[in-house]
C-alpha cells in the first residue's frame, strides 16, 4: 500500500488506465480501483501535463447549448433535486422566443455535444449530465 501511495504522490497518478468501481457492501471498501500499477524507476518519471490538471472545461455562456443546459438544469439549480428533467420538446418550447428555429432534435444534439465535450461515457443519461454540471459548478444560477 505504501508503495502505491509513494508512486501516487511522486508520479501524479498511480493508475493511468484504471477502472473505478463503487462498492455498496456495508463492510467493504468505498472505492475499489483496478489497474496495473506503473513500474517507474527511481531515475525516470513520466512528464506531468502543464496547465491542464484541475482545469474545468469551459462552456460558452453565449452559445445555444448553454441555454439548453440552463433550461435542462433549471429546476435542480433552483433546489428541487428530485424534480423530473424537462423533455427536449419542453426545452425547445421555452427557448423558442429567443431561438425561433430550435427543435427537439436540435436540443438533443446540443445535449449530446456537451456530453461528448465533458467526456461522459456513451449512453450516460441526462441525469448524469445534470449531476456533472451541477457538481462541477459549470452553470450559473438561472435568473
Structural account:
This protein has 143 residues and is mainly alpha-helical. It is built from 5 helices and 2 strands, in the order H-E-E-H-H-H-H. It has a two-stranded antiparallel ribbon. A hairpin with an 8-residue loop joins strand 1 and strand 2.
Number-wise, the strands total 2
Shape: globular
- Mean pLDDT, rounded to whole units? 74
Number of contiguous helices: 5
- Structural class, by secondary structure, is mainly alpha
The arrangement of helices and strands along the chain is HEEHHHH
Q: What is the strand content?
A: 5-15%
- What fraction, in percent, of the residue positions are helical? 25-40%
**Low-confidence runs (pLDDT<50, min 5 residues)?**
1-13
Based on CA atoms alone, the radius of gyration comes out at 20 Å
The major sheet is characterized as: 2 strands, antiparallel
Sequence of strands across the biggest β-sheet: 1-2
- Span between termini: 49 Å
Q: What's the short version?
A:
This protein is mainly α and 143 residues long. 39% of the residues lie in helices and 6% in strands.
Amino acid at each position: 500500500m505504501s508503495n502505491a501511495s509513494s508512486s501516487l504522490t511522486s508520479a501524479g497518478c498511480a493508475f493511468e488506465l484504471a477502472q473505478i468501481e463503487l462498492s455498496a457492501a456495508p463492510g467493504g471498501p468505498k472505492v475499489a480501483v483496478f489497474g496495473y500499477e506503473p513500474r517507474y524507476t527511481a531515475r525516470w518519471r513520466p512528464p506531468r501535463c502543464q496547465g491542464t490538471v484541475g482545469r474545468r472545461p469551459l462552456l460558452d455562456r453565449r452559445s445555444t447549448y448553454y441555454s439548453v443546459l440552463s433550461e435542462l438544469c433549471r429546476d435542480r439549480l433552483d433546489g428541487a433535486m428530485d424534480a423530473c428533467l424537462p423533455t427536449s420538446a419542453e426545452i425547445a418550447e421555452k427557448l423558442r422566443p429567443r431561438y425561433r428555429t430550435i427543435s427537439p432534435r436540435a436540443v438533443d444534439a446540443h445535449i449530446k455535444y456537451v456530453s461528448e465535450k465533458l467526456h461522459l461515457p456513451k449512453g450516460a443519461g441526462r441525469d448524469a449530465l445534470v449531476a456533472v454540471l451541477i457538481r462541477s459548478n459549470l452553470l450559473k444560477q438561472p435568473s
